[in-house]
Amino acid sequence: MEDNIDDKKQGQQIGEDQGQKIEEHKDEVKKEFKSFFQSLKDFLTELLDIKKDTDKESTAQNIREGIFMRGHTAWILIFSILVASIGLNISSSAVVIGAMLISPLMGPILGVGFSIGINDIDTLRLSMINLGVMVALSLITSFIFFSIPIFNEATPEILARTKPDVRDVLIAISGGLALIIAISHPREQFNTVAGVAIATALMPPLCTAGFGLATGRLDYFGGAMFLFTINTIFIALTAFVTVKYLKFPMVKYINQAKRKRISSAASIVAIVIFSFSIYLFYGLFIETKFKTQAGKFINNLKSEGVNIIGDNKQIIDFETKEIKLYVFGNDYSKKEKNRWKNEMEELGLIDTKLTILQSQDDSKVRDDIDNLKNMYINSHKMITVKDETIRDKDVRINELEKDLRRYYNQEIQFGQISKEIKINYEHLKKIGFAREYITNFEKIDTLAVLTLQWNSKIRKKEIELQEGKMKKWLETRLNIKKIEIRSRK
């Protein structure tokens, strides 16, 4: 009995020891996880920290110096806008990118965001003035270029900048953040690369606005300037947010009341810009989402075999929340159309109007398609016949080439052979060579015949000896199995 009690106590002790070891192991695992996450946090902090290497004095000086649009900077802007306009006119992305590399567009816009962030009213005033100068120079330059009659065609590159998209806003935000962070770093080589990102969002819209003025297309001008405006606002906003995050020193004024007024005014401007930016971004996001979902709906119908005329830009109308389908061919029932509306609701197009313009008489279209098919078939037949004729001629040419090669292989270079014979056999007066056809009425054979005329002074025995040597030499020299030599004096 006592032994059983001791065994139980011993078992309990072992269980407690094991439980303690498990708890200790759990504590060790927790410590290791904490250590891992702390190490990961330290690594990411060091990797993404931009406060450490920020040179605030140099950054402020660079931004203030880059605000002014006069002298060399003004001319650089004019020529970069001219190059960009040419690139848009010929739809060349490479030329437009080349213009971005020399463009000084970002200076005044960064100055606006920077000055609001540090409550610098003087820098803000200078930035706004130079921003106006920058826009005016750009519009005048592009207006003059596109006023030339041969350059006023609306290319795809130009049309792509007549209406803003949420992706344009993302480009402006990314470019603005890249530039202000690059400028805040002492390494100057980052600035040009980040400046290209800024110019991507600013130069094409300004050139397109000039195109709209030059061609009298105010809708192009309005859309391009709207795109330029929202990009400008978001670039300035990124500069403002970055300056606040990096805690740049605020400008101090001797007059305390004036400092408070300026601070309040700057804060109000920042809030207005920030709120307006959110409103614009949200509006563009909703429009982009609507067009994307509407495009999916149209593509689904096309995949089902519905014949829809026109592209998505003509079919989708965001302003009126309407999708106009120009369909032809089959007579779609009311049940089918209701199913389409249900599909629209599933894609989030709840308040969207679906207008179906259907044409049942597609006989003319079908006749045109049949005519095109017949033309294609006939053309294909003609091409096939021509290909066969060409192949036959190629075969005939190859056979003739083979015959010519056989003929040339059988021919000897009589001039060269005669010179060699003259050197070796000085008593010869004339030589002749011919191919003689021989038949026994069962088969035809060819015999190479060499005719020799010797000098009368040479003896007959000598002639026979010389001719024997010549026959062996010629058979080897001309690669002819059998040569018959006939001689006469």
Report on this structure.
The chain is of the alpha/beta class. The protein folds into 5 domains: 17-48; 56-251, Glycerol uptake facilitator protein (Up-down Bundle), CATH 1.20.1080; 292-362; 363-410; 414-488, GMP Synthetase, Chain A, domain 3. It has helices at 2-48, 56-65, 72-89, 93-101, 106-117, 121-147, 156-159, 166-183, 189-215, 218-245, 256-303, 312-315, 334-346, 363-410, 414-424, 460-477, and strands at residues 308-309, 316-317, 322-328, 353-359, 428-439, 444-454, 483-488. Strands 1, 2, 3 and 4 form a 4-stranded mixed β-sheet that branches. A 3-stranded mixed β-sheet has the order 5-6-7. Helix 8 (166-183) packs across helix 10 (218-245). Residues 189-194 have low confidence and may be disordered.
Layout of helices and strands:
Layout: H1 2-48, H2 56-65, H3 72-89, H4 93-101, H5 106-117, H6 121-147, H7 156-159, H8 166-183, H9 189-215, H10 218-245, H11 256-303, E1 308-309, H12 312-315, E2 316-317, E3 322-328, H13 334-346, E4 353-359, H14 363-410, H15 414-424, E5 428-439, E6 444-454, H16 460-477, E7 483-488
Parallel strand pairs: 3-4, 6-7
Antiparallel strand pairs: 1-3, 2-3, 5-6
Helix pairs in contact: 2-5, 3-4, 3-6, 3-9, 4-9, 5-6, 5-10, 6-9, 8-9, 8-10, 9-10, 10-11
- SSE topology string: HHHHHHHHHHHEHEEHEHHEEHE
Number of strands: 7
Name of the top-level CATH class of the largest domain: Mainly Alpha
Low-confidence stretches: 189-194
CATH architecture of the largest domain: Up-down Bundle
Beta-strand content estimate: 5-15%
Helical residue percent?
55-70%
Main sheet characteristics: 4 strands, mixed
CATH topology group of the largest domain? Glycerol uptake facilitator protein
Radius of gyration: 46 Å
